Amino acid sequence: MNTVYIREMYIEDIPEVVSIERLSFSMPWSETSFRSEIYSRYSITRVAELNGIVVGYICVKHVADECHLLNLAVHPDYRRRGIAKVLLDNMIRELKIEGCRFFYLEVRASNYTARRLYEGVGFNMVGIRKGYYVNPVEDAIIMMKEL
């Protein structure tokens, strides 16, 4: 596989990011949502590029010593190549430098692929949010990694 390059997400990336978002989620974020995260002083937004093409992204909220994974997706044509893990590993390194101690996320209970990814980088289940997701209604598994 060619080298995946992780960089800051820019406004110009939003059309590609939203396209990936719509292919990945039943309740996708809007362009406005991504724009808000790019401009938020508490958010860290990164994209993964492969051969000059945006193939994935990650958005994290960082407040004090806690961080929360808001969004992570890889284009369906580029999945199962380790790109999501590269995005996560890069973000974890960055968050440690920024002083984050606790990294949280929610994941659909039925999303076993994502759960295995998160467990593989050291996240553990710490709770359940009943009925957290809609379309379809589903519980969220709360996971946390101490950094």
UniProtKB/TrEMBL annotation:
Database matches in InterPro entries: AcTrfase_RimI/Ard1, Acyl_CoA_acyltransferase, GNAT_dom, YpeA/RimI_acetyltransf
Domain (N-acetyltransferase) ranges: 4-147
Gene3D superfamilies in alphabetical order: 3.40.630.30
GO molecular function: N-acetyltransferase activity
Transmembrane segments: none
UniProtKB keywords: Acyltransferase, Cytoplasm, Transferase
Pfam families: Acetyltransf_1
Family the entry assigns: Belongs to the acetyltransferase family. RimI subfamily.
Protein name: Ribosomal-protein-alanine N-acetyltransferase
